[in-house]
Write a structure and sequence with these properties.
Oligomer: single chain
Helix content: 25-40%
Structural class: alpha/beta
CATH superfamily of the largest domain: Ribonuclease H-like superfamily/Ribonuclease H
Strand content: 15-25%
Radius of gyration: 22 Å
Shape: globular
Order of helices and strands: HEEHEHHEEHHHHHEEEHEEEE
CATH class of the largest domain: Alpha Beta
Number of strands: 12
Distance between the termini: 65 Å
Number of domains: 2
CATH topology of the largest domain: Nucleotidyltransferase, domain 5
Length: about 325
């Protein structure tokens, strides 16, 4: 990166004194979240060695992370996990991460500078720059924060999900990573909408269930829920969707059918929950909470309806949500 930053200098000359930059990390990974950082930097500050995060060693990125977070006027990092990525697609998930990071700032900047790939879907003044991480010290700073924050998380995921070597490849499609997916199947943080992951488990029955889970996730997101995880597997049990409704933690079982009645499906769900779900729920709470929050156990029935020539008929699939329907505490 040049020692001068004409973009910041030009904008400062035209009266902009509070500039922010944003960038993302993890778009192309097969596992883990996509992250986005927004950084407000002093316009005249120059940090030696600052460059696009992809051009720097991990050690240099860590060193710059400390400098940037110390010198920044304000900064935020936000992440959107695999469940939301699968539900809304990676581009929308990236824009959502940018929005969350931006809204976390103490006060809005005059102008948000973005790399050319990022088109913010928020109410703010922004300027998109092709190759922005090489032309703007605020965007380059955001690139460092997004990359380092995500890498640190993937190291933690390596401890939580051993066997996939997340600490080494950070979720990207290395040869070793692809081999581990084929051997172990996808983990709860893998993006199942990504072809290399989807191919490892897409039998016809699984494909039907996954389609239903996609629709259930989109329903929850549209209703204002925050999706935390999909297909969380622990202790021999599995939770289809973990979400948050305000302060309440939701554990949801998704049943994909073609015309089955709710009572029939609910009874079937209850029987499997007592055997499979409770162990996974206990493990999730133990891993993520020192004090268990309020929990609810929901049933989501997705009626995919008959298909004709591979397409849904006119009425299309329907999603019916039954909050608190599951009874997994036992008799």
């Amino acid at each position: 990166m040049s020692s001068t930053f004409p973009i910041e200098e030009l904008l400062t000359y035209h009266g902009y004194t509070i500039l922010a930059g944003t960038d993302e990390a993890g778009v192309g990974a097969l596992a883990g979240p996509v992250s986005a950082a927004v950084v407000v930097m002093p316009t005249k500050l120059r940090i030696e060695g600052l460059a696009d995060s992809k051009r720097l060693s991990p050690q240099k990125r860590e060193s710059l992370f400390s400098i940037i977070t110390e010198k920044a006027l304000d900064w935020q990092v936000a992440m959107v996990g695999a469940g939301e990525i699968d539900a809304v697609n990676i581009y929308q998930a990236t824009m959502l991460a940018v929005e969350r990071a931006y809204l976390g700032l103490r006060s809005p900047p005059q102008l948000l500078l973005t790399d050319g790939r990022i088109k913010p879907q928020i109410a703010c003044n922004w300027l998109s720059l092709t190759g922005g991480d090489a032309r703007s010290h605020t965007i380059a700073s955001a690139s460092i924060l997004a990359k380092v924050s995500r890498d640190r998380l993937m190291v933690e995921m390596d401890r939580r999900f051993p066997g996939y070597d997340f600490a080494s490849h950070k979720g990207y499609a290395t040869k070793k990573h692809l081999e581990r997916i084929n051997q172990l199947g996808p983990s709860p943080i893998h993006r199942r909408s990504y072809a290399p992951v989807g191919k490892s488990y897409q039998s016809s029955a699984q494909a039907l269930g996954h389609k239903g889970e996609d629709l259930a996730c989109m329903y929850l997101l549209n209703m204002g829920y925050f999706v935390l995880a999909r297909n969380y597997t622990r202790g021999g049990g599995e939770i289809d969707i973990i979400a948050r409704d305000g302060a309440t933690l939701i554990f949801a079982e998704v049943k994909s059918t073609r015309g089955a009645e709710k009572g029939e499906v609910a009874a079937r769900a209850d029987s499997v929950k007592r055997e499979r779900m409770v162990l996974a729920v206990e493990e999730y709470l133990r891993e993520n909470f020192s004090r268990p929050p309020e929990c609810r156990f929901d049933l989501i029935l997705v009626d995919l309806k008959p298909e004709k020539d591979g397409l849904f008929e006119e009425e299309g699939p329907s999603v019916t949500h039954y909050p608190g329907e599951l009874r997994i505490e036992g008799d």
